[in-house]
Amino acid sequence: SNGSLSAMEGETEYELLQPPADGISAVTFLPRRSNLLLAASWDTSVSLYDVAVNDLKVRQKFQSPVLDVVCSNDSTCFSGSLNGRVNRWDLETGMNGAIGTHDDAVKTTRFSTNTGLVVTGSWDRTVKLWDSQTNQQVAQLPQPDKVYSLDVVDNKLVVAMAGRHVWIWDMRNMGEPEQRRESSLKYQTRCVRCSNDGAGYVLSSIEGRVAVEVVDPSPEAQKQKYAFKCHREKQDKQDIIFPVNAIAFHPIFGTFATGGCDGFVSVWDGKNRKRLCQFRKYPTSISSLAFSHDGQKLAIAASYTYEEGEKEHAPDAIFIRAITEVEAKPK
Fold it and tell me: Which residue, 48, 194, 265, 303, has most beta carbons within 10 Å?
């Protein structure tokens, strides 16, 4: 891969070599190593890349398509599969295997740094919590519908489901959800991500819209919430509307990026309600986005998400983009 190395020096953006062989469901950087990226795929693999030298270090196969992956530290990752398994993979020893199961596909996996718990959400209408040290299941939280996306920051857990349900839980008191909400968007939720300070969350839908929400339920605080249209384009005076699949918060500046089936990535300043930038059009739908912990890189998975059924589409690809302050810092 030496040829690609020289081309990468000073490049704003490059494509990773040896991408997964099928759809890319999720990308995530290791918590403290901004050169190492994991990618989960429908080809049943989780791949570990060293993005600094554009090298696929190792590709671990599981038994079923992998829908999400998360790290508990720089050497351990947990992934969720279509067959309901929650898998653990030790990146240093290579040891891997299922630590437990859901009764249906595990759509989303996140990690709670405060509690050391891995959080998995499934189409079986439950969220399960797993101790990342012992691999034991420590709780099962029933939800009103299929879990599509969830996120956790500090002690806040936000679960977005089918039927436009959004439940907010406190990780310290799992007997009851803290709040039961309905999405303020009229259409199916695709992604939810919590703001860095845990005071709010951003939710996206299949109908080219994003909602910026506030956790505090008081009427005064709720006045700050709003929604906006994005990932749409005009064709012959018609608005073509695309699902917004991916959201990622910048770890330093607190701005957030969105990616849609239109192949575009935009960065937004949620507090000042404006777009900071839009990158070039990527070859196909954006399926996942992830910033490195230092905020200097954005991993962009361009991978057709079958919103229009079987059709010819660009090959699945992962792009690594260097992020400048101008693109991500509130003005």
Answer: 303
Question: 303-317 pLDDT, tens per residue?
Answer: 987 777 777 888 999
Instruction: Say which residues have a Cβ less than 8 Å from residue 176's Cβ, sequence separation at least 6.
Output: none
Measured distance CA(292)–CA(74) in Å, rounded: 13
Q: Are 111 and 132 within 8 A, CB to CB?
A: yes
Percent of the chain, pLDDT > 70?
A: 96
Residue 10 CA to residue 326 CA, distance in Å, equals 17
Strands 238-241, 76-81: pairing kind: unpaired
Phi, psi of 7 (to 5 degrees): -70, -25
* Number of Cβ within a 10 Å radius of residue 190: 24
Find, among 86, 50, 53, 82, the residue nearest to 66 by Cα. Answer: 82
C-alpha span between 180 and 198 (Å, rounded)? 17
pLDDT tens sequence across 275-299: 999 999 999 999 999 999 999 999 9
How would you write the chain as a 3-class SS string?
CHHHHHHHCCCCEEECCCCCCCCEEEEEECCCCCCEEEEEECCCEEEEEECCCCEEEEEEECCCCEEEEEEEECCEEEEEECCCEEEEEECCCCCEEEEEECCCCEEEEEEECCCCEEEEEECCCEEEEEECCCCCEEEEEECCCCEEEEEEECCEEEEEEHHHEEEEEECCECCCCCEEEECCCCCCEEEEEECCCCCEEEEEECCCEEEEEECCCCHHHHCCCEEEECCEEEECCEEEECCEEEEEECCCCCCEEEEECCCCEEEEECCCCEEEEECCCCCCCEEEEEECCCCCEEEEEECCCCCCCCCCCCCCEEEEEECCHHHHCCC
Beta carbons within 8 Å of 324's beta carbon, 6+ residues apart: none
- CA gap 179, 249 in Å, rounded: 23
